[in-house]
Write a structure and sequence with these properties.
DNA polymerase, domain 1, mainly alpha, two-stranded parallel ribbon, 142 residues, single chain
Length: 142
């Protein structure tokens, strides 16, 4: 379980680094884009410069927040994929995400519930020891 926690922490740290890099890139692109798309007269007034800068800054902040939220959602989805499947509560579709578990095997797991421990899958002859070894780190019995 500690390795799972370390893996999640490492993924979050990496996503945080990526989000900062992404925010900087998006901000720089927005500023360069605004500099190249000058539709103002050749000598804008200080008030026009202030207004344009405020508008550009607002757009960069909005876009940066959207990028950060997208990254957070992606990290959350990756973290959800790492969570083990509870063999006492999982649906057949959830069980079929496990390696080597098809419709029939998923139904057999459901039919033999409840399980006090994941090794009960082998003790009750629901799956073989070899099959259990493939999924043992992906399942829990709660």
């Amino acid at each position: 379980m500690n390795s799972l926690c370390r893996e999640c922490a490492r993924a979050r740290k990496e996503a945080s680094k990526q989000s900062m890099k992404t925010m900087l890139v998006v901000g720089a692109m927005a500023l360069f884009g605004l500099a190249g798309c000058n539709t103002q007269p050749t000598n804008p007034t200080p008030e026009q410069i202030r207004a344009n800068t405020a508008k550009a800054t607002g757009e960069v902040v909005r876009d940066t927040k959207a990028v950060a939220k997208g990254i957070a959602d992606g990290v959350r989805q990756q973290t959800d994929k790492v969570r083990p499947i509870d063999i006492n509560r999982a649906s057949a579709d959830d069980l079929k995400t496990l390696p080597g578990v098809d419709d029939a095997r998923a139904q057999k797991i459901i039919d033999e519930r409840p399980y006090a421990d994941t090794s009960d899958l082998v003790k009750k002859r629901v799956i073989s020891k070899v099959e259990y070894d493939r999924i043992s780190d992906k399942v829990v019995a709660q």
